[in-house]
Amino acid sequence: MEDIRAVVIATLKKIAPEVEEQELKDDSPLRSQVDLDSMDWLNFLIALHGSLSIDIPEADYARLITLSDLVDYLKTKI
Amino acid sequence: MSLLTTEKEGKIVARPGIIRKTAADLRALPNLSDYAKADLQAGLAGLPGGGVNIAFEAVDRHACGPLRDHTAFRFLGRDGSRKDLSYAELARLTNRFANVLRRLGIVKGDRVFVLAGRIPELYLAVLGGLKMGAVVSPLFSAFGPEPLRTRMRIGEARVLVTTSELYRRKVAKIRESLPTLEHVLVVDENIPGTLDLGRLMNEAEDEFVCAQTTAEDMSLLHFTSGTTGTPKGAIHVHGAVTTHYLTGKYALDLHPEDIFWCTADPGWVTGTSYGIIAPLLHGVSSIIDEADFDAERWYRILQDQGVTVWYTAPTAIRMLMKAGKEMPGRFSFPLLRFIASVGEPLNPEAVWWGKEVLNLPIHDNWWQTETGGIMIANTPAFDIKPGSMGRPLPGIEAFIVRHEGDSVAVVDAPDTEGELALKRGWPAMFRGYLNNEERYRKCFAGDLYLTGDLAKRDADGYFWFIGRADDVIKSAGHLIGPFEVESVLMEHPAVAEAGVIGKPDEVVGETVKAFVSLRQGFEPGEELRMELLAHARKRLGAAVAPKEIAFLPSLPKTRSGKIMRRLLKARELGLPEGDTSALENSA
Prior knowledge:
The structure holds two protein chains of two kinds. By secondary structure, chain A is mainly alpha-helical. Helix content of chain A is 56%, strand content 0%. Chain A has a single domain (2-77), classed as Non-ribosomal Peptide Synthetase Peptidyl Carrier Protein, Chain A (Orthogonal Bundle). Chain A has helices at residues 2-15, 30-33, 38-52, 67-77. By secondary structure, chain B is α/β, with parallel strands linked by helices. In chain B, helix 3 packs across helix 7 (197-203) and helix 8 packs across helix 9. Chain B is globular. The interface between A and B is medium-sized, with 21 and 31 residues.
């Protein structure tokens, strides 16, 4: 669990290196805490696929709002 | 000799099969303009006692007529919530907001800036501000602190309406550098140094008499980017409402029974002219989605809300295309009847994709921050040429021009590339760049407004976009000024020079790519690259910051020291470098 969270944050920091990990709140929408435009967001999800080898179908994007959503979702896929 | 032939250079030749006319051939203006006038008189009311006000036409007029209980806006929250506002409620709440401003001592002409996601308060602030005669400037919420500061400084903001989250993340740190900013109204929380908008709205009166603005009074201030220098604040007037009304009719075919969805954010001109004003003028119900783009969510909105007219952007369409054909197959859109797109040229594949997947072709149209409303369009009434922006709307005269020294010459030959120009004088034309008369003057040659876009016109009168005449970057339909990005990169101690270009991208049109050379003592590397990216993103925000940063030993410059972005771009794309005689070390 902790590992996945660490991978998610490391991947996020490749797109948005300004992110301060200690300021991220797990349960509030990621895109209201970090400035990510649509392209950043897509690149982030694609990069997650790359770093975890987990396929994230486009139809699931809408459920991935918070950091916890992402971690929980990826956990079920591993 | 037959009337169908004529004599030319001693020979009998057939006359052409078509008689082409110009406006001059008519000798008097056609009566069609009277039709438009009659239509306007029926569609717009004018203020009681004279004058015109955008908010009165958009809201108040309907609030005391048959549409009073009709839905004006349906707000879809990120969390799945739904909130409808009727025209009567919208009038009451915008009255309250106007009263809030009045109580703060805001007077006609004062600048009210709005920085928020697509939440109801944004719409109330824009319309309430216009109603009381303030000049409203909506800012894009994905801007970072630096673009926000620049715009509020140029615009001399007196009031800012925002959310607690945006205030803390972006405004608090720049507030001290904004001496004109007296009041910050925060919608959702009581933060020291700000005013609680919710409380002020609760205390405000329901009644407000619309300010007696004239057609030439300033209404909105929309910022746009140029190649050099700071962003330009394009001044718009209340009289622009005529263009908003007519284009809502001709280009979007709006009827009061329509469910209309303009996906643009009001931080950009489309989201104001067509996300707020035009649909209200036509008594339409508008869908406003607070959430960011998501393919499935968007298909669901089109289906579940019964959208009939949809105005969106090429980037969004291409992202839907990328999500595949299977997804739209799970939805149906029997009520959807018209789709239009704006922001950058719509590629022919996307037009055809609409026809195949949504059963409707997509109508591309063209306009700019400066034009205030749609100028050239593929309309419901005419055939579409996929890849073309369409033809000038009634009342708009468009030309292709060639620069000849200080003046321009109109190019009549079809399919010839040149700068797109419009005959000045349509009602929504910008009336200036704030505090920058010289730049405004430079946009005109005689009677013509020069758009800065390169295009060509075919023999049927359809216009085709070719590119920008300057270095401005078009990303996801938004203009980004390279200078603004370069300035922020240059602030970093490691950076000696910066040059920023638009790198072609199949989804968003162009992405921002920066080239930097480093000061002595700094070495290029991944760590520094990430540091520069973080710096740029923190200062500029995701919408403006570069997506890519590359290091170069030095940047190509002219002998006068100007970075040659054109050359950076040619090299990036592996294109011929063209004329490099101005390069500093070329001779």
